[in-house]
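RECORD TYPE: inverse folding
INPUT: structure tokens
STRUCTURE:
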């Protein structure tokens, strides 16, 4: 079962500019910046009260973030939900007919195992499953 919203992912063209703007907007600086080579992104995390915001900048043209921005422009890229057992949750969703974009969980940013659910199965929203490592 999906838990709380773990974070909102926002695709940005320029991470430094976006960090400055979100620092102004949220009133706090980012608490972590991390490169995720496997996803070809640099991420920056903010706390907004009890909620997390993840800014994502592509590091390569083949990145999902680069393709997203090319098609749709900057903006909300995904909604991430916390799960206790990502493997069990992936199996539950497969049995329910959801298309997973990953065969197995992979390492993501912020010390998480992650998996994505295809947007067509969630009414156009890209869903990320996140399990703390």
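DESIGNED SEQUENCE:
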């Amino acid at each position: 079962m999906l838990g709380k919203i773990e974070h909102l992912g926002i695709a940005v063209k320029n991470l430094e500019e976006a960090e400055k703007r979100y620092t102004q907007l949220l009133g706090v600086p980012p608490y972590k910046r991390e490169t995720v080579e496997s996803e070809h992104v640099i991420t920056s995390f903010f706390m907004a009260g009890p909620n997390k915001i993840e800014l994502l900048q592509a590091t390569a043209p083949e990145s999902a973030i680069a393709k997203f921005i090319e098609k749709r422009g900057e903006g909300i890229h995904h909604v991430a939900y916390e799960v206790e057992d990502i493997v069990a949750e992936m199996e539950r969703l497969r049995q329910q007919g959801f298309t997973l974009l990953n065969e197995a969980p992979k390492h993501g940013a912020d010390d998480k195992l992650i998996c994505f659910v295809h947007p067509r199965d969630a009414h156009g929203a890209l869903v990320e499953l996140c399990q703390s490592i």
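NOTES: The longest helix spans residues 15-26.
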